[in-house]
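Researcher: Please translate sequence to structure tokens.
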Amino acid sequence: MSELLDQINQPGDIKQIDPKDYKALAWEIRRFMVRKVSRTGGHLASNLGVVELTMAIHLCCDFPHDQVIWDVGHQCYTHKILTGRKEGFDHLRQYGGMSGFPKRAESDCDVMDTGHSSTSISAALGLAKARDIKGEDHKIFAVIGDGALSGGMAYEALNNAARLKSNLIIVLNDNQMSISKNVGGMSNYLGKIRTNTNYTELKQDVENALEKMPHVGNRLTEKIRGVKDLVKRIFIPGMLFEDMGLTYIGPIDGHNIGQMVSAFHSAANMKEAVIVHVSTQKGKGYRPAEQDPSAFHGVGPFSIKDGTIRQNTEKILSYTDVFRETMLQLAEEDLRIAAVSAAMPSGTGLSAMAERYPERFFDVGIAEEHAVTFAAGMAIGEMKPVVALYSTFLQRAYDQILHDVCISGLPVVLAVDRAGLVGSDGETHQGIFDIAFLSQMPGMVLMAPKNAWELQQMLRFAVNAGCPVAVRYPRGKACQAFESYKQPIALGKSEWISRGREIALLAVGSMVEIAEEVCDNLRQQGYEPSLVNVRFVKPMDEEMLHMLPENHRLIVTLEEGVITGGFGQSVATWYEAQGHQAVQIYPVALPDQFIEHGPVETLREKYGISADRVTARILEQMED
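Model: Translation complete:
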């Protein structure tokens, strides 16, 4: 390990570093992160961009007494290094290892478990109010990116922060990127501030001149204070933040530690909420990440020499690939089909749609709530909108789906990518709640494909269903099995894979492949199980459910979602309402808890939904 980094072993150690060595320390931190992430994978570009910013915050703060909330949280690596967690990077995002996000259980220097965007200002404002009520005196920082400012929650918080009569420092980390390139009015507004130096140059010239005028300088400063706002409005259009009642400092160089330390100290002396606008470069210090920050946002293991991602050379068709190609086909066939993304056109497979049909593609920024209600408006206007979101981010639009789509029965299609366990990003990103919250919404149709072909057919069905439809599919490789099972999609109808007796397995989406393996295991034990591909979580196939008790005494439901409110509980409730007493319902699902980070197969095994664990659980039930 490097000489300077050897001196960083606990919070506050950075203050023992000679200021002339800050630049060298920043270089060492970047080299350390590149080396570690090249082996484990992780969020690299965002972390490389905030090295000096994080160092400046630590130079101004005493952790854990002072507090910082990182919006989204994937840019916290330098913070972890400076708070004594260097050793954890050997197992970053690995099962049982250190999280790639802030984690209260890891360190008292992590204030809040974060993973979604636009939340930091609200949380920091709450911390500030709690501090004031208790009569405490410590610094509170909220670090939020310009991409996160496209989320409406940030403005709700800013509106309230303007009334704060005590200190709160909001650092706007402006790198012109979210995951993909920023879009929208706020991006344009910040661009004007970044490029307009007239005001800041004039302000500096005036201050320099006043400092040279003995006795009258201070009085003149007071005289021109009232003119300052007018000057700002002349040179910087809008002055949005100050018009909201917030003090604004910047923009300043987010890679100049001295400038930031000075700005943070000035901001800390104010009895109000202050926005410090810093400009940073995403991926700074590692050329491949500088050239393609989107590719190095969340990256797997890679070659340090040239940035080449280490991966299986075998071409893997993912469910996202299938969605991408199907959307292009559908859009070619029907001019009313439009696609909506919330700042993730690449991640959801919609970049191709944006290129081929730009007039029918809409990236609304990190604004999932707006994305859904925007789609509702398009549906009223007789378009066929498809909103593509990761399952974990779909949660943010719960009310909009319920209130703006389902109450009116609008034909909005939700393409729910990364449904189920997703692995290394952990609790904040596992897509395990969508079955529970979508299936409780009246009028919602919820589907899950068993393989690539079925995803194509379900999307084709969904855009013509004339009602709200959600299609959930997992991250990663698309299943190519079950090629001989191509029964047409019909509303609320499941598909029989095999017919047997005694034990019936009802599998949802990704669990069909696992259920087939379970059936093979059970056959080796002398059983003849039935396997049903559920297809429709809602509406359920009641005709199929009526048939099962005739020759099955154990009905096992399998889903990669939480058990509470899931498909299994819905089946059990249905049978109870029907008065069936002879059949036993055994739900196989994830426990009612948040699931940590780790490889999907490892997590499936741990939580009892792998083929071997499911087989063992079923055999136990049959022995009772």
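Researcher: Any highlights?
Model: The chain has 25 helices and 17 strands.
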